[in-house]
Amino acid sequence: MKNFAHPYEVFEHTADVGLHAYGRDLPELFSHAAQGMESLMIALEQIKPTTMREVTVEAHDHLSLLIGWLDELIFLFDTQFLLVRDVEILDLTETRLQARVMGEAYDAQRHELASAIKAVTWHEAAITRDEASGSYQARIIFDI
User: Fold this and answer.
1) Between the CA of residue 123 and those of 17, 24, 70, 139, 141, what are the distances in Å?
2) 10, 40 contact by CB (below 8 A)
């Protein structure tokens, strides 16, 4: 299974960009997916964790919850210019996620945006579990 020294990997996908995220459990998977998505926009080292937001997302299963979670982080950037660096999953069930995110508002003087993410797509989206290790992998493609 996956070496967790690298919790996510970026891959090219036609006009979009994809991400494989990994986690020993679902909360870690959701956290790594968020950090991986943010890393597509900006190097995480550029973000100072000075602002905290609590995020709650509800959906009908883990996959739609993951997509809703990432969409909510895109919404925070689009509406509050919030760049997220640290993620703490407070509660995760089959249909509900509650998390605390830390980051800061985008500052054109200090932050170098690599790309903007328009949306998380359903195309080829998947969460899989390795039965032997119990760890998880997600495949997500973003519209940029």
Assistant:
1) 11, 24, 15, 10, 7
2) yes
Class of the 8-143 domain?
alpha beta
Per residue in 118-127, pLDDT tens? 999 999 999 9
pLDDT digits (tens, 9 = 90+) for 1-25: 555 667 888 776 666 889 999 999 9
Residue 70: φ, ψ to 5°? -65, -40
Give the strand order in the sheet containing 96-105: 51-58, 96-105, 82-92
Entry pTM: 0.89
Count the Cβ atoms, other than its own, within 10 Å of residue 54.
Answer: 10
